[in-house]
Design brief:
Chain B: Keywords: Cell membrane, Membrane, Transmembrane, Transmembrane helix. The complex is a heterodimer of chains A (about 250) and B (about 270). Chain A contains ten helices and ten strands. Chain A is of the alpha/beta class and about 250 residues long. By secondary structure, chain B is mostly helical. Chain B folds into two domains: about 170 residues, no CATH class; about 70 residues, no CATH class. Classes of the chains: A alpha/beta (about 250), B mainly alpha (about 270).
Chain lengths: ~250, ~270
């Protein structure tokens, strides 16, 4: 399944103001893998995701999705394959109804209206918001908005889901629903998050970014148990792996 | 503050009305747009002292509002926003134009007043027509109709995106103002010394939000053409709708219907 490999080679990105957001990042993500991308604020997580979907282009280095390099020519294909869920669902929902929003992507790829409808219904049923199909997105609750934003991506039938802080701003129950939803997806997932407990549950592999450099890449259970590494990178051991805060008993 | 957030919801109100399904909503957007344009041209083409000839044209918005089940109050509220402009434009007419056009005992009517009323009626009618076409069609479908009329893609896109981003801008305004008032509870408005930084901040934030929204659109295959789903076919009903209204507008324009009815009635009475 080499066509589903996402590969990043010696990636550098410098913002126009001179800030080097990524320097020399390289990794390979295989088909069906679920990868957590963690790091302190400003470590370069969002920039990396933007580079994966071709919103930004590297200053140096290369991004390959499948066997295609990400460049201006391949963008339409890349964007069909990699679905990006933004940190703020309000940025992603801009149509008048949830239905139109979910249909926006497929329509842009010139699919016939019956196929568009099929995809929309499948996507909103999958995320459990079929009953909100005719509602205005800006009137939904935070959790519903997040589900709608994910549905807008699913309707493009991507192979890879790139998510920026998917659990931010969600109440515990909505967060749990989101985690269960994502667990059910067979897509390759790249999840940038500060919610280390979620990463622990969803991702078998974790990459740690610090000041634009990839400082660790390995099994989640190992990385998220490495107190020194996490401390160095502005993170801490997830609550799920810490001792009991009340009685202090070890896990 | 609450006012801004409220109006944010109200901006989309017309678009929400457009999602209804009534006889009028089902008419092809192109037929509705053309009818509205012809109507506006017909209304504006009346000469400046015409009042009675304009009256039959009120039937058009009234019938549409009735058939499309548009709630009257919110539409009138929006209409009120425009009336001051019309009043402003016509306000000086009664002062300068003293030509007497009608006298009945002590009552004299000058040309200034007649043209003033004509301006007000014309603006009410045209604005009502524009509001009803949006409330029964929605911006997306109006843009679709504009494209059918070969209006350049760039212009249509500008119109649509401006319409979209108004709410983005207003959300940011609401946030900035909320933050301001939290820390300046005694100020009634925003103090002038904060205007500059407030507006600058707002501009940058809006750019940022607009960029994010644009990126979200581009990532889902947006290439400049705003696709809004199935393009409905023009049917006989749509053509009939356009023809009947056009004939009515032409009749109202060419003949003074109230005068005709008046003479008919008086003729009968004689």
């Amino acid at each position: 399944m080499s066509h589903h490999i996402t590969e990043v080679k010696e990636l550098h990105y410098v913002y126009p103001d001179g800030l080097e957001a990524l320097s020399g990042v390289s990794f390979r993500i295989y088909h069906g893998e679920s990868v957590g991308l963690v790091g302190a604020n400003g470590a370069g997580k969002s920039t990396l995701l933007m580079l994966l979907v071709g919103v930004l282009f590297p200053s140096k280095g290369e991004v390959m999705v499948g066997e295609m390099p990400v460049n201006k020519k391949t963008l339409p294909l890349i964007r069909q394959r990699v679905g990006m869920v933004f940190q703020n669902p309000d940025d992603q929902l801009f149509m008048n109804t949830v239905y139109d929003d979910v249909a926006f992507g497929p329509r842009n790829y010139n699919l016939g209206e019956p196929e568009v409808e099929k995809r929309v219904i499948q996507s909103i049923e999958k995320v459990g918001i079929a009953h909100l199909k005719d509602r205005a997105p800006y009137k939904l609750s935070g959790g519903e908005k997040r589900s709608a934003a994910i549905a807008t991506i699913l309707s493009m039938i991507p192979d890879i889901l790139a998510m920026d802080e998917p659990s931010s701003g969600l109440d515990p129950k909505s967060r749990r629903r989101l985690i269960n939803l994502l667990k059910g997806f067979s897509h390759t997932k790249i999840i940038a998050s500060h919610d280390l407990d979620m990463v622990l549950e969803l991702c078998e592999r974790t990459m740690v970014l610090k000041n634009g450099k990839l400082v660790a890449d390995g099994p989640t259970a190992e990385i998220l148990n490495d107190a020194v590494l996490l401390e160095n990178c502005g993170l801490e051991i997830p609550l799920g792996l810490q001792n009991c805060p009340v009685c202090g008993s070890t896990k | 503050m609450a006012g801004i957030i409220q109006s944010l919801y109200e901006i989309r109100f017309l678009d929400e009305l457009a999602e209804k399904r009534t006889v009028i909503h089902n008419i092809h957007p192109l037929a509705k747009l053309l009818t509205t344009l012809i109507y506006i041209v017909a209304v504006v083409s009346f000469e400046k002292y015409e009042v009675s000839g304009l009256l039959p044209l009120i039937f058009y918005p009234v019938i549409i509002i009735g058939l499309a089940e548009i709630p009257l109050l919110p539409i009138l509220k929006r209409l009120l926003l425009v009336v001051p402009f019309a009043l402003g434009i016509g306000a000086l007419n009664p002062v300068f134009d003293h030509r007497i056009v009608f006298t009945a005992g002590w009552f004299t009517l000058t040309g200034g007043w007649v043209s003033f009323f004509s301006i007000v009626i014309k603006s009410i009618l045209t604005v009502l027509a524009a509001l009803t076409v949006i409330a029964t069609t929605g911006m997306n479908r109006i843009s679709f109709a504009l494209r059918l009329l070969f209006v350049p893609r760039v212009l249509v896109l500008q119109l649509l995106l401006t319409y979209r981003y108004i709410s983005v801008l207003m959300e940011e305004v609401a946030r900035v103002l909320r933050a301001y008032h939290m820390r300046a509870p005694l100020h009634k408005g925003v103090r002038y010394n904060a205007w500059g930084s407030l507006a600058g901040n707002l501009l940058i934030r809006t750019f940022e939000r607009a960029q994010n929204v644009y990126q979200a659109m581009v990532l889902r295959g947006f290439t400049g053409e705003y696709k809004t789903g199935g393009a409905p076919q023009i049917t006989i009903t749509d053509l009939l709708y356009l023809t009947v209204w056009t004939l009515f507008f032409a009749a109202a324009r060419l003949f003074d219907i109230p005068a005709l009815i008046g003479s008919l009635v008086t003729g009968v009475v004689k």
